[in-house]
Amino acid sequence: MAALALFWSDWHVGHSAGTYDEKTDTGGSNGAGMRYEAEGGDPANAGLQHARVFLEPIKAKYPWITYADLWTLAGVVAIKEMGGPDIEWKGGRTDYVDDPKLPPRGRLPDGTKESNHLRNVFGRMGFSDQEIVALSGAHNLGRYHSDRSGFEGAWVNNPTRFSNQYYRLLRSLKWEKKKLPNGVEQFVNHDEDTGTELMMLPTDMALRDMQKIRISFSETAAAFAKLLELGIQRDSLGRIINADNKNGGYHAAPKKKSKPGASGKTSDDKVNVDEARPLARENMQFRAKL
After folding, report:
1. pLDDT tens across 110-141, in order?
2. Of the given ranges (8-22, 165-179, 198-212, 228-242), which has the lowest mean pLDDT?
3. Residue 92: which residues within 8 A CB-CB, separation 6 or more?
4. Which of 25, 153, 176, 265 is the most buried (most CB within 10 A)?
């Protein structure tokens, strides 16, 4: 169950660090920008508030750790707990104290697009086609829920075990386009013998246009470690030397309040916003179904 609770954190890391832009050197995993509505409320991040809430008990026990470090570390642990490779992780990220430095919306992948979109989004972060395919292996884990992301279903038969099944199924099965009741289009494979229906996003199908689709665990580990460090500058001793870190030190944002509140600009304790308690109840109901 611990691994199940963490798999969302793996997705959370990808979307947190995935805001990075190599040309402007903005965005990335530093700052924990999803604490603010400007980033956390991006439609591309729908549902990831559940990952943040899963980690709140850890933040409560270790209040000194920054959300930026907690979220990235949780993603690494999630992959390892579910049978994935060891991924290098380095700490030291700080939490922003306000939201002016948050990147603009629109930098994250859109699952409805094709290969050119993937190359534009991940190329902006400095990733090659091979690394794009390696990072997409995270689709071995978890599933989509239409009431959160618009898409529905799992990519693989065992979505809590890290493997290469995602790549094998993408190549070997026949995928047909399906329009969901909400109007969203995805690709599905329905096994009549077992009644199982798996799904792929249009961006998954676009991977077949890439040069190579066979990926080793070591390539996945290297690509994910690179993702974690986007936007991070370190000295020869591994210390982060970004301006916010040098000027403000290791600033850990306060834990979210444990009582519900109305939506607002920020989810810091300074404003009466809290998503933890109501989402925690919803997460418990979700786990009870498994």
Report:
1. 889 988 898 999 999 999 988 999 998 889 88
2. 8-22
3. 69, 232, 234, 238, 239, 240, 245, 250
4. 153
Catalytic residue ranges: 15, 155
First to last CA, the chain: 10
- Position 184, amino acid: V
Phi, psi (rounded to 5 degrees) for 154: -110, 155
CA–CA distance, 282 with 151 (Å, rounded to integer): 19
The pairing of beta strand 196-200 with beta strand 185-191: antiparallel
Residue of 64, 78, 73 whose CA lies nearest to 91: 73
Beta bridge partners of 178: 186
Rounded CA-CA distance 212/219 in Å is 12
Contacts of 212 (CB under 8 A, 6+ apart): 129, 130, 133
CA distances 112 to 47, 100, 177, 198, 205, Å, are 17, 29, 12, 17, 10
Phi/psi for 56 (5° steps) reads -60, -40
Q: Token pair for residue 225?
A: 């470690």
Q: What is the dihedral of CA 52, 57, 63, 69, to 10 degrees?
A: -40
